[in-house]
Design the sequence.
């Protein structure tokens, strides 16, 4: 009887572990679709050799409070999640880049797969002279977001769009989108390579 009970408990434990293991991968949250983010480029197969992020593009969730807190420098695009480190790899500055026009209005689009009460969406851009062949650091970004969209704790829909004027930039840059969650200690991070 004891052997059967031990086998049953072990089986239940393994089943529970399997549920937890698959549950984490199935839970997504959100990513930018315009301009297209690195995680979306991996998820849709445009970029190869992306590791686990190709199956979990909406899961780049890290500590909120950027830029004072949040993911460490060099790990911002992955949200500080080690298994998504491919997003931090600059790939020699060769990530596909969305063409944008400086000073023009752009409609930013987030795809939301798990809705959360939201503080805001913020967009940062790299400084002039940024080196696209190196992992992103805070020092690479203009210190203030060029666009902040307050959400006042509301839950977004499955698609969030908002328009903002793009900064006056030329050449290749990176836009960091940060979706700050109101009722947890986390935010979602999305790096989009762009060319003005």
Sequence:
């Amino acid at each position: 009887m004891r052997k059967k009970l031990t086998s049953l408990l072990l089986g239940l434990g393994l089943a529970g572990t399997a549920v937890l293991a698959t549950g984490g991968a199935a839970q997504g949250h959100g990513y930018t679709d315009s301009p297209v983010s690195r995680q979306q480029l991996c998820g849709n197969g445009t970029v190869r050799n992306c590791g686990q992020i190709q199956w979990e593009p909406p899961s780049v969730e890290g500590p909120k409070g950027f830029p004072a807190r949040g993911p460490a420098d060099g790990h911002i695009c992955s949200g500080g999640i080690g298994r998504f480190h491919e997003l931090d790899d600059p790939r020699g500055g060769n990530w596909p880049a969305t063409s944008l026009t400086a000073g023009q209005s752009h409609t930013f689009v987030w795809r939301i797969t798990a809705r959360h009460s939201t503080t805001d969406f913020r967009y940062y851009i790299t400084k002039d002279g940024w080196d696209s062949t190196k992992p992103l650091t805070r020092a690479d970004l203009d210190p203030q977001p060029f666009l902040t969209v307050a959400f006042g704790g509301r839950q977004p829909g499955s698609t969030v769009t908002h328009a903002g004027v793009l900064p006056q930039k030329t050449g290749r840059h990176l836009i960091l989108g940060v979706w700050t969650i109101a009722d947890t200690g986390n935010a979602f991070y999305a790096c989009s390579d762009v060319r003005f």
